[in-house]
Write a structure and sequence with these properties.
mainly alpha
Length: 345
Amino acid sequence: MRVAKRMKDRQPAWEELERLCDELELAGKARRGANRGVSGAERIQRFAFLYRSACADLALADAYQMPPATVAYLHRLVARSHNQLYRAHRIEWSDWIQVLFVEAPKRIFGDPCVRVSAIVFFGLFCLSMYLAFQDQLFPGYAEMIAGQQALQQADESFEQPLNASFDHYVTMSGFYIQHNTGIGLRCFAWGILLIPCLYVLASNAIQLGAVFGYMARSDGAAGDHFFEFVTAHGPFELTAIALSAGAGLRLGVGLFRTGGLTRMDSIRQNASRAVPIMAASAMLFVLAAFTEGFLSPSPAPYVIKAFWAIFSSGLISFYFVILGFPDSQTLPAPREDQSEIWDAT
């Protein structure tokens, strides 16, 4: 009886929570950012308190097997409130332009995690390429790293001149987008644990470098066709791999180096810093995939592919150095993905 009386006494609070849900749904249809202030913050605080209370009421109603209508009503109310509390903001293209062309270059330029990933990836790539190229000094290195079967397959794939149909371009462009994104996501996902991320990054760098060095040997018949294929998309693809690993390392740093914050708050803060870096990496992966699908395998003259590689390298340098160089203004504060509801609670 006492539980039933409590449920009856709680009905005004449920009705108030419903009214607040109505108000927030109407506000969500209006321009985001309107009606912010002390009164709005107090209303959100009240909403959060009522939501937590409704969750407790639902648990109590389930435990004491209250009437099914009451339990169903509370389920709907809690679900509706949860959607309002943790709803995502609508996509604002101006925000993404701000992230990609203002925040991301500065984050990348000043982030030590990106520097570490770039040094590890490009350093090991160049070293492995040199060791594989110098077969007389380091015999069997390329075969040990990449595998004899993979090297033989590379020779067979690029034995003939590049000449693909348009249907092949479209198919391979989609394949490369999926493949390149998979590499980036693996580097990013393992970043939370630091060491696995560095291992994945280093292993990719060493294997790619071994293949490049092997194909660069003068005794190889397929080397010219191989470099004709990889020249155009190489700058975009290799840079994107290093960036995705740097974004993952930023999350890992938040897990192990909290700076006085709770571990979850530290991860959340570093995740906000990693988002612009990962957005730039995704943009480079898409550019690399379309280049790799349409330009790289085409019979276009090599001078066009080389020009595109130089042009893309210049774009990357401009993006990271010119746009990313610190100015007199303060770096934009990390973005929070939650709405003002989270801040109020």
